[in-house]
Amino acid sequence: MARLDRAAVITGAWTFVEANGLDELTMRKLASSLGVSHGTLYWHLANKRALVDALAEDLLAGVADIDSVQRGTDRLITLAGRLRSALLSRRDGARIVSGTFVRQPNTLAFGEAGIAAARDAGAQGPDAALAAFSIQYFVLGFVTEEQAQQQLIASGDWPGDASGIDADRFPLVAAALQTLRDVPRDAQFDYGVRRLVRSL
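User: That's the sequence. What structure does it adopt?
Assistant: Structure tokens below.
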């Protein structure tokens, strides 16, 4: 058996998450799937929190690599789209990144690129940071919902329409659910990002 290194642990963790989901991931279960004692993993990652942080950092690899010649508004839209694609590329990707406070190169590069783009888009002082992170929060929330919907559809539990809702009592919600059903996810995402960027 090849020597287990940090890269192999992260690769194994992705394989485990894709097969079982984030909720099932533990150091002990991961070690078992890799065929090692769980104590072996602690040579590379201190605990599950560190493991999830490592997955989040890995997921953001290359996301910030965009053309800095673009206008700031265009860069913000591009960054948002690249983040969404990265999160969707892995099962539970949005949940893995949400709530992490990683201070590693890929994560820091994404933050740097977003703030720089917001400044170039016209945001001044602290507004640049607030704008960049607001867009990031939108993407994380949007994809969290998107991936949850995918899982419900796969399990057969997704209602998919306004059935079961009293349309006389909640007419706006019933109509809104129909709109969300009719408008493709990509268009919903584009609408939200552009509304946020336009505010700059």
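The longest helix spans residues 126-155.
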